[in-house]
């Protein structure tokens, strides 16, 4: 290549020599660069012209530059989309096609130069082709000095050293990672072994738990059986206790009976002694003296014991039967206030009905005993007969009267499908106690109670849900028991602010909630 450059430079600088020297230089340069020999210029002009025309025609028909332009535009559009390898392939493809076109053009150039003879086209080759060829070959020359080459060698050695160091460090890192991987595998194997041991322990624990659970269930069943037997024993003890209490009550009654009979015996003995005396006492007429009988009756002898027993029974009604009745009513009525009002009215009506029944029963007894006793003994005899024959009291009639009175009471309401017979147990016991209280001397009675009245601490105690500063009674829960004007047992009342005094007329229409009575009026 250096000889060709020198030859081209010499040919350019010596253009002023002769035409022959120029022709020789052109021929030598053309032969050296393009491989065009003198024989080409000596070829027949007709054959050369025909080959050139065919080559040019083929080049025109194939339109290689149009194809190159299309491929360039397609590459430009897809340059940023396709990969680097695809871009390089397309570039190489274009270079190859360009080289093919240049080869055809150089073929045409060769034919054209051969057609022109020895001297035709020399100036064109000198001014156009040779400078272009020199520029291309000069650009392809390596521009590297000795210093630059040494520096490149040093850089290459340094890069090799770094590559070796990196390779050594990489090998050490790989070895270290392999060691860590082996240790991790060992730890994983140990963890798997521990997991297997733990699973076995868990299975053992499950089996033990199942056994313990079975034992616990058996213990629970045994405890339930023991609990049932204990409940049965408690019930038997309660029955025995009730029987014992009944026996004690019968013993007290028998003791009272014995004391009464003893008193009668003493009186009879005294009468017998007086009858045997020589001076008999003057016989008094039944109607001549207002004095009572000299011997006390059974009612008088048992008055204190009956008093204490009835007071205790009245307290039991408040503490036991009232709560049981309240539970029964709450199954049908959700309003607690209405339930308490129903119980209070039932108790008051039972007491009133029992008092009325006692008066009627006493009138019948007096009428029956009047032919046999004087007026001074008739009252005591009637009371004594009632005390001895309390079982003759028609308590069922009183229960019916109480239920009828409650059915027409405007202060209470009750579901129409349910009857007041549900609380007949409380009514029965209250009637029995109230009837027996009328045989006492003096008899016991309830205090007057009205909603909205002024609260009296001497007669009542406040309920747990009352307002302690309220002065008026909202409604009553339990009546107070009086002996004359003295309070024997306090009642219970609910006091709240805003309570109003309720006044009821003597005659009212039937309640809109309950209409069980055919009577159009209601007396309170």
Automatic annotation (TrEMBL):
Q: What are the subcellular locations of this protein?
A: Cytoplasm; Mitochondrion matrix; Mitochondrion outer membrane
Among the entry's GO cellular component annotations, what is one? mitochondrial matrix
Q: What are the boundaries of the region Disordered?
A: 273-301
Give one Pfam family: MIEAP
Identify the keywords attached in UniProt to this record, alphabetized: Coiled coil, Cytoplasm, Lipid-binding, Membrane, Mitochondrion, Mitochondrion outer membrane
GO MF, one term, reads: lipid binding
Chain ranges of the Mitochondria-eating protein C-terminal domain = 307-495
One example of a Gene Ontology biological process annotation: mitophagy by internal vacuole formation
User: Which intervals of the chain form a coiled coil?
Assistant: 188-240
Q: Where on the tree of life does the source sit, at the highest rank?
A: Eukaryota
Enumerate composition-biased segments (Low complexity).
275-298
Q: Which family does it belong to?
A: Belongs to the MIEAP family.
Q: What is this protein called?
A: Mitochondria-eating protein
Organism, by scientific name, is: Dissostichus mawsoni
Classification lineage: Eukaryota, Metazoa, Chordata, Craniata, Vertebrata
